[in-house]
Design the sequence.
């Protein structure tokens, strides 16, 4: 039996920790509770061995083993190791992200009496409590009661102390602050299946007839039940048909029974409680009835909501017969999976380049069906379920209860429930966002990554992994097929296909031979010359919108900034009004037309920071020079909507941005109204460019998208090209062909030219040429080292120190740029500097970063101040 276990703990340190096993039995991949820095933490066993740690390390024992068998498979542990290594991330934080089971470990506080507390207790007993007279007498007495209760020195939980003394958590915390008490966290495991408790009228205490009647007409019968005596109260033969006679009940008890009978004999316990509360009946009455077996409590699993989106007559992906191109794509994938043979097909990465509207979803569904019918499970990653609920709906339509959904809007309990369904093999089709790449699927046979270019696959906090790349690695470890799909593949994936590392599958036609929309550029410089006015919408866009609406078709217009105006500038001194916390211009929001938000979220006119949420009122004079000439620049979606309202008073207008869509429900409702034609003119940010498949849209307008070309980021052109292509792809997906009008100040920019001809391949070739020359990804590995602190001096000191160390220690093959202020030099009150590392040799880059982290630990540079972002997507 091994003596020691290496445990990965969720702390920002780049290693695991050795504990003695004692008499515990633990498997690699199981969770354990261990003492760490005065706390108890949950960690994962990553190794078992007999090598004692160096003598200077204080060896502590494991406190508790939480899982009898490994929770993480060897494959997922291996994947975690790879992520920790590749992304320079602490192994414990990687594993924490893999196990969405936080719901199962709840934090409790325990309290002990402190030295100071004892003194108060004894002195107070002698001298009285004059020094503490600011508290009410009651609270003073409670404090004494708490000290008395804890006097023995035994620690106690909040709930126990409250039960004994009536002291609430606030009082205990105040006592902790005064150092009368010591407080420690206690990690406790609980069962996280999402169960609901239901109160049920016990058999024999009510007649079946009554309950059935009642359940069919709940409202009416509840009243009747209260008036007429329900069966169980009368001495009718039915009621006494049971073996024992009903005991005598008091009025309140009878009222509870009647209430429950009125609900059809079954009701959620919390519902019943709140109803009784309204009638002034205490919970103890109910408890008595439970004790006397007249009411039974049952646990049932809560139902799980997938989506309420309906497709308005459009067919689901699995209902189509695949066309020739789709069939061929499927054949390639199925051949790679090599399902017929005993041996799995081996690691076969594919890039599925299929233009917008080419029917990629139907190919995914068919490939997943093949996996299922060969007893394999399949994983589909999607960028953001909230933005494209239709994909989830398609999968549920095709696979029903086989589907598990994993996304960021699940509660911890829901997430744990899905996780268990997947792990047990009940749900063999998993659809999910980024972290679903870790879904614990037995017999995984196929991984699909939809819209693989989407930047939401990159996690922007530790561990900063890219789910697409992790998916490829997972497929490699398992020796299975992985398919990355997109109409605008990332240049990284395109390059891999060019070099033959990925097999390329192409679908270059839309389904039913529908044409791609004609794209026209509108030169806004000429528009200004001819009209002499700065307008959001050009004359041509206005006119074509009108004719499209007149034809009963739908129009969407992209205005990729939310709010009303995104810059407020002083004409006198040139100052832009910035956020107090960030080096970012504030956006002006008008009150009023944030109408799609339900509830009290309406707010007045304000300036808002889109990075930290800071808000202030709109000043009437410049905060810097007091001039009155403040100037609102740059139209956002809110202003776009207002202007469209004026231009098209007859249109049925909608808006889609972060101010009108907060939740999946908001998005589903808005898409529903688009599908049904209730909305015929939609303005919005890039949300409107996601994979929506709405057949009535025939005109797409693009306003101000080329603004982003000027951003100081080498991926700017790629992002704009993707956005233009994706938003254009929303037009002409039904029977009628579509049109796209792009308003631009740079009609000859290569991004616009290639987007106009739907020439992804041409764009990629042109962009690759530039990337190669500049040694940017995909021709070099890149890491961003970000130094952050609320103290500017600390940022400068660390930046200088790391800059010097890197200059002295970098190998020839790694280039170091900086340190320099990050493009956003201050964010949420944190100062930001960065260093960019580039190398054609990824191993050299990784090795350098790891020795930099070791150097930091040696010299005491705090890890929290330094973020290492390998394959950084955003350099801002
Ligand atoms: P993509 O993701 O490639 O842009 P989708 O998967 O959204 O395309 O499919 C576009 C539309 O084509 C959807 O409405 C889908 O139902 C439909 N479709 C898919 N396959 C076929 C087919 N074989 N014949 C006709 N329509 C199809
Ligand atoms: Zn000014
Ligand atoms: Zn801010």
Sequence:
């Amino acid at each position: 039996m091994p003596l020691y276990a290496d445990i990965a703990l969720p702390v920002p340190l780049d290693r695991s920790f050795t504990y003695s096993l004692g008499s515990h039995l633990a498997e690699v991949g199981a969770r354990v509770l261990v003492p760490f820095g005065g706390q108890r933490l949950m960690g994962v066993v990553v190794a078992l061995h007999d090598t004692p740690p160096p003598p200077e390390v204080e060896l502590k024992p494991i406190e508790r083993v939480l899982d009898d068998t490994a929770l993480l498979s060897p494959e997922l542990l291996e994947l975690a190791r790879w992520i920790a290594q590749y992304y320079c991330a602490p192994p414990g934080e990687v594993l924490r992200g893999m196990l969405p089971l936080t719901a199962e470990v709840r934090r409790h506080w325990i309290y002990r009496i402190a030295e100071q507390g004892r003194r108060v207790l004894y002195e107070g007993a002698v001298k009285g409590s004059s020094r503490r007279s600011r508290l009410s007498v009651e609270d003073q007495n409670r404090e004494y009661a708490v000290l008395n209760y804890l006097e023995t020195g035994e620690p106690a939980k909040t709930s126990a102390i409250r039960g004994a003394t009536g002291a609430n958590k606030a009082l205990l915390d105040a006592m902790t602050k005064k150092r009368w008490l010591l407080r420690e966290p206690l990690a406790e495991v609980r069962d996280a299946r999402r169960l609901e408790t239901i109160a049920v009228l016990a058999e024999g205490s009510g007649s079946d007839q009554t309950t059935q009647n009642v359940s069919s007409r709940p409202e009416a019968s509840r009243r009747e039940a209260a008036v007429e005596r329900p069966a169980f109260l009368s001495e009718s033969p039915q009621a006494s048909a049971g073996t024992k006679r009903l005991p005598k009940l008091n009025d309140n008890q009878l009222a509870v029974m009647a209430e429950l009978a009125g609900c059809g004999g079954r009701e959620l316990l919390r519902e019943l409680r709140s109803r009784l509360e309204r009638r002034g009946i205490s919970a103890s009455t109910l408890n008595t009835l439970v004790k006397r077996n007249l009411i039974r409590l049952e646990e049932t699993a809560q139902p799980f909501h997938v989506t309420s989106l309906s497709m308005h007559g459009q067919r689901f992906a699995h209902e189509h017969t695949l066309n020739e191109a789709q069939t061929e794509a499927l054949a390639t994938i199925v051949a790679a999976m090599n399902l017929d043979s005993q041996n799995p097909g081996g690691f076969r990465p594919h890039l599925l380049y299929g233009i917008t509207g080419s029917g990629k979803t139907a190919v995914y569904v068919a490939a997943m069906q093949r996996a299922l019918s060969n007893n394999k499970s399949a994983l589909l990653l999607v960028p953001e379920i909230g933005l494209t609920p239709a994909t989830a709906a398609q999968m549920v339509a095709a696979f029903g209860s086989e589907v598990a959904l994993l996304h960021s809007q699940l509660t911890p309990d829901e997430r744990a429930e899905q996780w268990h369904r997947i792990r047990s093999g009940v749900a063999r089709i998993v659809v999910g966002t980024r972290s679903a790449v870790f879904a614990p699927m037995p017999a995984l046979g196929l991984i699909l990554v939809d819209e693989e270019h989407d930047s939401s696959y990159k996690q922007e906090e530790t561990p900063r992994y890219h789910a697409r790349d992790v998916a490829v690695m997972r497929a490699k470890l398992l020796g299975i097929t992985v398919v990355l799909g997109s109409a605008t593949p990332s240049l990284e994936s395109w390059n891999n296909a060019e070099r033959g590392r990925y097999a390329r599958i192409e679908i270059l036609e839309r389904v039913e031979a529908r044409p791609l929309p004609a794209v026209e550029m509108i030169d806004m410089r000429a528009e200004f010359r001819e009209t002499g006015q700065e307008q959001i919408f050009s004359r041509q866009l206005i006119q074509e919108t009108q004719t499209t609406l007149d034809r009963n078709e739908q129009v969407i217009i992209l205005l990729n900034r939310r709010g009303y105006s995104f810059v407020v500038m002083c004409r006198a001194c040139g100052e832009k009004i910035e956020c107090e916390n960030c080096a970012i211009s504030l956006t002006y929001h008008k009150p009023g037309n944030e109408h799609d938000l339900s509830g009290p979220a309406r707010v007045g006119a304000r300036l808002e920071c889109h990075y930290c949420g800071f808000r202030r009122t709109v000043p009437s004079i410049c905060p810097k020079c007091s001039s009155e000439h403040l100037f609102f620049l740059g139209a956002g979606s809110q202003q776009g909507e207002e202007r469209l309202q004026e231009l098209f008073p007859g249109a049925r207008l909608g808006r889609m941005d972060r101010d009108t869509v907060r939740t999946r429900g908001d998005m589903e409702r808005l898409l529903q109204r688009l599908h049904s034609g209730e909305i015929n003119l939609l303005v919005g940010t890039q949300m409107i460019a996601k994979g929506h498949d709405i057949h009535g849209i025939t005109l797409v307008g693009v306003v101000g998208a080329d603004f982003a070309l000027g951003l100081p980021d080498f991926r700017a052109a790629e992002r704009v090209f993707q956005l233009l292509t994706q938003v254009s792809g929303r037009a002409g997906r039904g029977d009628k062909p579509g049109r796209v009008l792009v308003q631009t100040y740079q009609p000859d920019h290569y991004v616009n030219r290639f987007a106009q001809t739907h020439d992804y391949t041409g764009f990629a070739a042109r962009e690759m040429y530039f990337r190669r020359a500049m040694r940017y990804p995909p021709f070099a590995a890149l890491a961003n080292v970000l130094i952050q602190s609320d103290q500017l001096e600390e940022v400068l000191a660390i930046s200088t120190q790391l800059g010097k160390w890197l200059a002295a220690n970098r190998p020839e093959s790694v280039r170091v740029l900086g340190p320099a202020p990050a493009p956003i030099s201050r964010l949420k009150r944190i100062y930001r500097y960065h260093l960019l590392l580039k190398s054609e040799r990824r191993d050299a880059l990784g090795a350098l970063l790891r020795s930099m982290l070791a150097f930091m630990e040696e010299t005491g540079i705090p890890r929290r101040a330094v973020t290492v972002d390998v394959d950084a997507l955003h350099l801002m």
Q: What stands out?
A: The two ends are 51 Å apart (CA to CA).
